[in-house]
Amino acid sequence: MIRFEKVTKTYPGPGKPALDNVSIDIEKGEFVFLVGTSGSGKSTALRLVLRESRPTSGRVYVAGKEVNRLAGWKVPRLRRQIGTVFQDFRLLPNKTVSENVAFALQVIGKSRSEIDQVVPSTLELVGLEGKGDRLPDELSGGEQQRVAIARAFVNRPMILIADEPTGNLDPTTSAGIMKLLGRINETGTTVLMATHDEYVVDQMQKRVVELAHGRVTRDEARGGYGSTVV
Ligand SMILES: Nc1ncnc2c1ncn2[C@@H]1O[C@H](COP(=O)(O)OP(=O)(O)OP(=O)(O)O)[C@@H](O)[C@H]1O
Question: Pairing with 222, which of 138, 157, 181, 191 sits 20 to 30 Å away (CA)?
């Protein structure tokens, strides 16, 4: 579903590559943590998947298509197939919960009747039933992240990318968010999550790909945040 083939990414200016000859193969339906210290290249890798950035060399494939070779007009379609969730939620502050989720469907041209049907069921799925009329600042951090997840998932994307989604949340709230991401993964959505959250990674025991200085230093089918190899 997501494949990095000998990917190197060098940003302009001096310094080592942000990604250095990285190869990763993620199957449809996998749940993968991308871990590594700050600056190890996690966000760079996620941006390449979304074609927000392009590799200096090597290839990135999403659903069998080489992302870097997609015609510009096909990039929005690629991004529609990938839901994104971030540490800082990125909700529209003046729209209600329902409107935030509906907006993701409006911009891709879904009909009002479809939106009216899908938004409430998605809010229920993420545990926000009855809160559709609230504004984001009337919600807790964990609830705001649930709205962001509903917005990312309402279109049933093939892939969900999460960049540090529990970064602003306490451990109990984070556990709830991870349970939700686990449920979304169980529907067949491939989940790729960059994180520093040791506790979350240790609890989930999913595949862990570790980056250090832009290189893959570990790729374990079921692992924790730290290396289990002694
Ligand atoms: N737009 C950019 N221009 C130049 N250098 C960049 C740019 N974006 C990232 N870098 C550099 O690339 C390297 C990898 O950064 P990246 O943001 O991918 O790391 P990260 O693992 O996501 O870090 P964090 O956990 O802090 O978000 C770092 O050395 C960073 O300074």
Answer: 157
Query: Which residues are CB-neighbours of 104 under 8 A, at least 6 positions away?
Result: 151, 152, 154, 155
| pLDDT (tens digit per residue) in 104-117 | 999 999 999 999 99
Ligand 1 mean position to 177 CA, how many Å?
A: 25
Nearest CA to ligand 1 atom 12: 18
> For residue 2, how far is its CA from the centre of ligand 1 (angstroms)?
20
pLDDT tens digits, one per residue of 155-200? 999 999 999 999 999 999 999 999 999 999 999 999 999 999 999 9
Look at residue 229 in the predicted model and tell me its pLDDT: 52
Split at pLDDT 50, 70, 90, the class of 230 is very low
Contact residues for 179 (Cβ-Cβ < 8 A; gap 6+): none
Q: Which ligand 1 atom is nearest residue 36's CA?
A: 21
Give the residue whose CA is nearest to atom 24 of ligand 1.
38
Instruction: Indicate the domain borders of the chain.
Output: 91-156
| β-sheet with 65-66: strand ranges across | 19-26, 2-9, 57-62, 65-66
**Helix boundaries (H) for 126-170:** 141-153
Instruction: Locate the ligand 1 atom nearest the alpha carbon of residue 53 and give its number.
Output: 1
Looking from the CA of residue 40, the nearest atom of ligand 1 is 21
pTM: 0.95
The protein residue whose alpha carbon is closest to atom 13 in ligand 1 is 18
- The structure tokens listed for 101 are 């989720």
From residue 32, alpha-carbon distances to 122, 170, 195, 204 in Å are: 23, 22, 10, 10
